[in-house]
């Protein structure tokens, strides 16, 4: 399981990292950074909650 993202569209709101700091972080330019290349199953629900929180919908959890 992975997270697909389009960092060029990230607006740096940080809501993903607020909801799921185990999964998402922001770099010094306030662009989303994924903490895991391959997402552990135990973090699926967190990852999906963070993706839903993104106001510009650039995060997607995929198998
Ligand atoms: S919530 Fe969306 S726009 Fe905001 S930092 Fe996360 S990925 Fe970027």
UniProtKB/TrEMBL annotation:
Database matches in SUPFAM superfamilies: 4Fe-4S ferredoxins (SSF54862)
Report the source organism: Streptomyces graminofaciens
**Gene3D superfamilies on file:** 3.30.70.20
Species lineage = Bacteria, Bacillati, Actinomycetota, Actinomycetes, Kitasatosporales
Cofactor(s) this protein cannot do without: [3Fe-4S] cluster
Can you name this protein? 4Fe-4S ferredoxin-type domain-containing protein
Domain of life of the source: Bacteria
Q: Which UniProt keywords apply?
A: 3Fe-4S, Electron transport, Iron, Iron-sulfur, Metal-binding, Transport
4Fe-4S ferredoxin-type domain: residues covered: 1-29
Against Pfam families, the record matches this protein to:
Fer4_15
State whether keyword Heme applies: no
């Amino acid at each position: 399981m992975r997270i697909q993202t389009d960092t060029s569209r990230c607006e740096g709101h940080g809501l993903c990292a607020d909801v799921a700091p185990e999964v998402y972080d922001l770099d010094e330019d306030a662009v989303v950074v994924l903490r895991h290349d391959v997402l552990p199953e135990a973090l699926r629900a967190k990852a999906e909650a963070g993706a839903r929180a993104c106001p510009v919908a650039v995060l997607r959890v995929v198998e």
